[in-house]
Structure formats: structure tokens, C-alpha cells
Amino acid sequence: MTQPTDKAVTDSAEGLMPLAHDRLNAQPFPLSVSVAIFWLSFMCFVAVVGPSLMPYAFTAIDLKARLSLPFTSLHWLGTDELGRDVFSRLVISIRISLLVSFVATIISATFGTLLGFLAAHYRGWVEQTVLILADFQASIPFLIFALAVLAFFGNTLTLFILLMGIYGWERYARIARGLAIAANSQGYAAAVRQLGASPIRIYLGHILPNTASTLIVSMTLVFPEIILLESGLSFLGLGVQPPMTSLGNMVGYGREYLTRAPWILLAPATTIVLTTLSVSILGDWLRDRLDPTLK
Amino acid sequence: MDFEQASPALLAVEHVRKRYFARAGFLSAPKPVDAVVDVSFTVARGKTLGIVGESGCGKSTTGRLALGLEAPDGGSVYFDGVPLPKYGSPAWRAIRRRIQLVFQDPLAALDRRLPIAAQIRESLDIHAIGDTKGRDQRVLALLTSVGLTKHHASRYPHELSGGQRQRVVIARALATEPDLLVCDEPVAALDVSIQAQVVNLLMDLQTDLGLAMIFISHDLKVVRQVSHRVAVMYLGVIVEEADSDHIFKHPRHPYTQALVASSPTPRQKIKTPMLLTGEPPDPAARPAGCPFHPRCPKVMEVCRSVPPLAREISPHHHLACHLSEPVTLEAMAS
Amino acid sequence: MIRFIISRVVRAALTIFFVMTFSFIVLRLSGDPALIIMSPDAPPEAIIAFRKAWGLDDPIWLQYFHYFGAVLQGELGRSMRDGRSALVIVGERIPATLLLMVPALMLKVGIGIPAGVYAALHRNSRIDRLVMSFAVFGFTVPSFVLALVLVLVFSVGLGWLPTSGADSWRHAILPVITLGIGGAAVLARFTRSAMLEILGQPYIRTASAKGLKWSAVVRGHALPNAAIPTITVLGFMVGSLLAGAVVVESVFAWPGVGRLLVVCVSNRDLSVVQVILLLVASTMVCANFLVDLAYGLFDPRIRQAPRGAGQ
Fold this sequence. Notes:
Chain B is α/β, with parallel strands linked by helices. Chain B has helices spanning 59-67, 90-95, 106-109, 116-126, 132-145, 162-174, 192-209, 220-226, 244-249, 254-261, 326-333, and strands at residues 11-22, 31-43, 48-52, 74-79, 82-83, 99-102, 180-184, 212-217, 229-234, 237-243, 311-314, 317-319.
């Protein structure tokens, strides 16, 4: 239904409130945000189509061309200690690191939001359990937690992603619980419940869409932390396992050749920093625009 | 006005009690607060019961108990002769079709992410009333019936004025053709200029649709206008209940008298104004005896220790006050 | 106040209990340590003997009870590698870790808090923007990258400092700087936003409107109030000192607890990892406890009011 020229509101002295998205559109992108968006789009592009553009297989060993300098016609970013093409390895690393971080962020957001909603819906001991678990999770440095789980359960890519998917769940759970309780007690959710709606309709149809912007902002704040965590663990040799490679993995193995071939680790290190920086800039900007209450 | 005994009441609330626990601190024991102490009333089909009182008198809690949004700690609520089902159960959800609520703050009651047509339609979707096309038509008809047009259908709540939003909430409440509509301070959040329009709308709809209504408000004038019967609440109890015209002309409870005196109508001669003194009521610190005794200008010794019971002092006029008790009158006469 | 302390002690005990249970479950479910420790071609009798010696053939709940009983008696098991007490193995690494952590913490506080306060007081100035960019980099540059860049510049490039090892105080400089810079950035950002929030409060305007000198307003009203959120972050930092040590000690081959953890995790040395987990949890709990007490000092309301998210 289109909006024809309708008559002025008759029964009110109040004017129309400004639209929320007008406020968002009115402000131009700051330069830093534009650059951040560009970089992230570029990274996603590399992750998706990069492998088909790679000059070499990322595991292809060429012992004759070991530690070749970068910016040559054969190897744009040089080669590593086994003569593997750094550029090709970088492309695969970006793909793997983004995949791990992205899937982990989704898992953590889904899992956390679900627990938060369950806590808000059932209250009582369910809520207490979720809160105690959240407190516990928040009070243990995740790196230590992850180290213990990883090394003792062995390490597959699936397990690693699932583990990263635990990171930050407690933040979503707390936010989702708080917002759902508020909505249930006096807001639209109480209204829809009193209409006779089922809990599924209330939570998925109303509370989730209304909390989405806050949750998305939280995701952009957690995402860079997951990238750092993934690369940190991989750097220690306890994350993504060879022959597969990730950004942290490349830095970790390149460390041995810091003096002779710094290019092996400089390219992935720069990529990590630029990517986390971009997501942080974007996240801060989104937070200021969408949800200034979040810290 | 002799409708009460004609048919069994649509809603019968019998001796309900509700106690909340206020947490004063992290570890201190929660403090009990009696929001509703002992409340009984009935609502007849097609009639409006007004509930008036100051804030904190338990009128909203009474409304929520009547709606079944909360379970009473004691007593029972019968709707159409049957006890209200357990909160949240499928039977409870089904009965929502017949009992609806109009909120005080329409902006909070509406989902700001959905156009209003979708929100009105939601009641129909939930209770599977009609087919797709029929629902669309019904939404438009409802919009018209509350004084909005089809041009408003695709608007979002924040694009409407306060009065229009309340009209949307009313339309949504009416979508399932309920038997009972509970209006909890429906105009308190609106501009004074708009209040009358919404009140008139509610009255028109009530007459047209034959709704029963519970109209909760602190505003005596509005309650007088819309109600067939009026119940006056003070600190969790109904102190006086009578037909609307009767109670405003012949208030018997000192509290009702004070309320009526403080809210003059144009044709009424102003007698000596009876002003309330003392602290406003605090449900967390109920006085012993009659809850009104610390502020009552006619307080007697018995009021300080014995809570008065509600009695029918004349047909359809219930009063809970020691002043009207025969024993007390005799005692005063002697 | 006594109730307040009791509730905190109960919470602390609960956390420790959780960590113990967690570490027990994770470590026991993770596979058969006998097969991991012994060489694959070890005779079956040797494996059975190993299991018996370590109590690994008992039912899991019995192991759990034994584990708790042992922990309460201070018996935290022995390294499955060389049979030495796990507690001793971890204990002898603690001084090395502290040698990095204490100066790093001083660096964080010494740079982070003044920078944050200054930035907040001179909002939108050039220095504020400098502090903020510094803070953003602190958040986004992983510590291992920072460490490697420092090594590249100061050891490889300039040749001023050793790349790794722990032979002299000069070896400690780069690790301390790595830890300090990252933490200072986090602290600066928190202090700044805490200060800004306080400076926007009505009572600050009131205080300056009634003619109090601005420096007195800042010292008397703004700083004590901004201290509360800052202390929380600081508490978390103290509590997670060991976590920070993991990466940095690995990069610089520093013989501390963090490096021990990485090595033991790779070797699947259950007892030692358990001890480190308990050590981390205890540090965390103690830090939280101190923060709570500090709260009570700075803000008497906290003693009464409930804390935490939600309503």
C-alpha cells in the first residue's frame, strides 16, 4: 500500500516524530568508516573468490625458491621457508580466519541470545543458572579456558570453531535477558502476550526484531576479539593446525624467520591489524548511531 | 439501572488478594507489600465498572487480576461463570480472545518495528479468525471504527500522534470481538484536548458493540462520564461501590466525599470543600484498622483497630465504613 | 558490611568450585592420558600399571571425589612427565612471571590512567585524539604482533636489546613494554569514558556553578567517582595477568607460568594444567574480591544495592 497525500493528523497537537532511519541517513559516513567498510568488503571478496585467483596451491612446496624476496614477478609477497607462495597462503589464511571468526560469532550470538531469552521467559532457577554460568564465563580469562579445552580434546577445525563460538555468549545472554525482561514487564511483548500470542511468536516475532540492533552492535564488538583470539591461539600452535593455515598460524611459523624473512609474517600481521581495526571502527560507529546505551 | 440481577455477571471477582515483595537491598529480606487486600466486585454484560483511586491504591493490580495477567494469592476470578485458566496455559491464551486490555501508554504497548495494520491483524492471526482476505478487510473496518483511515494502515507507531496510537491499541483490542475490555488509565498519557475524544470513542464503541468494560482511572470526571457503576479503592480495598449517578450525588464514605468535593462539576454547588490531609497512602506501610483512618476527618476510636467490612447500605450501594454501621450510629446518638 | 563480605566469599568459593569441576571434567573427558603419555608401543601391562598408579581406572565419580579430597589437602597431583609435584613445578615458575607482570602493571596504571584522565579533561583536543588512536591500536593490535614488531625494531633492526631469553634485566624490557602498552591503551580508554560520563553529571555542573575551582571539582568530585568503573577494569587486569603472560612469555621464551601452560597443554600434562587453572581462578577471585571491597570504600551504596546486569 502506498502512502497517498493524506490529510493532516487531526486529533493531535503533537507533530510527527522524526524517523529513526532519517537520523541515520542524515549523517555522512566519516572517512575512517568508509575506509573500514572498503577494507572489510575487500577481505570478504578475497575470502570468497580469492582461491580461484591464487597463482599457486597454498601447500605447493618449491624448495628451489625458498625464502624468495617479495615483489618479484613470480611471488608477489615472496615465499616461506619451504618455498610456498606467501600470497597464496595469505589468501587461504584470510578465508580460514574469517570463516572461523564469522561462524563463531554467529554461534555465540545465537547461543547467548537463546539462553538470555530462556532466562527471561522462565525466570526462577533457569535464570539463576544462566546468570551464574555467565558470571563464571566472564570471570575466567577465555584464553586459558580455550587452551585447556583445545589441547585436551585434541584439535579439529570443527571443534576449534565451536570453542570460539563459546566466546562472548555471556554478553549476548545478559543483553537479551535484560531487554526481554523489560519488554515482558510493560512493553509491546506484554501487550502481545495478553493478545494470546504463543511464546514463540512473542520472542521470534517481536522481541528478537526489537533487540536485533543491539545484538548486531554487540556482534561487531565481539567479532574483532574472536579474530584476535583465533590468531593468538593459532600463533601458539594450538589453533588451526597445519597443513591448513590461518593468519595467526602464518605469523607463528614465520616467527622463526623473523630476521631472515620478515615478509612471511608482516603480510598476515598487517592483515590481522587492519581487519580488527576496521571492524572496531565500524562497530563503534554503529554503536554510536544505533545504540548509545551500549558500552 | 436495575441490571445486576438480570443475568449472571460476565466477570465475578471474589475476595482476591495480591501481595508483592519489594527487595529493599541485596541481602535484606524482601518486604511484603499488599497491593490488593480483599476485593470483590462483578461486571455485568454490556456495562462499565469504573475503578477510581489515587496512585498506589491497587486499582491497576485489580485490573491485572481481573484480566488474569496475574494470579491472585487468594480468592478467585470467574469469567462467564468459569474460573480463569492458569496464566500462560493454552486455555488462558485462548480466552484472551474474549478479554482484552487497553494500556496506559500506547507507544510502549505497540511494537515500533511493525506497521499498525500488521499489529491490529496480529490478534486475528493468533486466534485464527477469518482467512487472509477477510483479515485484511477486518483490519480496515477496525481502523475506520476507531476513527482512523486506511491511509494510516502502513504507518509505524512513532509516525502517529498519542491519540492515534491509543486508537490503534483500541482497534487491536477490539479485533477479536471481546466481551470484556479492561482500560487501565487509557487517557492518562494523552493530552487533555485529546482525552475527551478517546473517552467518547470508548463510550460509543461500548454502546455499539455491547462490551463490558472495566475503566480504571484516577480521574473522577472521566469515570463518572463512562461508568455505570463506580468502585472507589483505597489502599487495596474497595471502600465504596454504587451506581455512578448515585455515588456522585450521595457519597457516603469520607474518602469518596473528599474525592467528589475536590472534583467539582459545573452545576454542582460548592459546599465546604473537604480536603484530604496527611500523607498519601503507602501500601508498604498499611495502618491498622480502617486503612483510611489516618487521613479521615471523621475518624473514631474503633477505626484505629477494626477494619470495617463492606455492607450493602441501600440497594446496590456497598460501603465499608464504621460511620454507617448501625451500632456506631447508636453509639453516636447516645 | 559483614553480610556483604560473606556473600562475596560465597561467590568466590562457588567460582573456585566451578573451575575445579570444569577442569576435572574437561581433563578427564579429553581422552586417555595413559595412551598420550606412554609411547604407542608400550606394553599393555605398563599402560594398565600407569592407569592404576594414577587412579585412572576408577569410576569417574570416584575420581571426582578423590580429586576434591586431594585438592582440599593441598595435594594437587604430580606431573605425569617426571613425577614431580605439580604444585612445585608451577610454583618455581611464578617468580619469573611476576618479574614481568608487576612492572607491566605499573606501566599500565602509570600511563593508562593519567592519559585517560587528561584526554577526558581536554576532550576533542589534539592530545585527546592522540590518546584515543593509541587506545584503538591497543585494542586491535594483538600482543604477539606488537611483540614481534618490537623485536624487529629494537633487537633485529637497532640491536639494542636481546630477542628472547631471561638471562638479564635487559631481556625483560621488551616483554614488559609489550604487556604494558596494550594494557595502558585499554585502561586509558576506560578511564576516559568513565571520566567523561562523570563530568556530564549534574552534580559536577552544580559544584562548578557554586564557584568551586575547576581543579577542586575534578579532584573532589570527578576523580573519586570515575575511580569506581576504572577499578573494575583494573581488577580484571590483575586477575587476568596470567592469561596475558601466555602469549608474551611464548614469544620471548620467558620461563614463566604462561609458557609452562602452553608446553603442558601440548604435552597433555593434566596435573600441571589443573594447578595453573586453579591458580588463574584464584587470582581472578582474589582480584574480584579486592575490587568489591574497594567499591565499598569508594561507594557506600554498593554495600546495600544489588550488583550485576538486569533489573
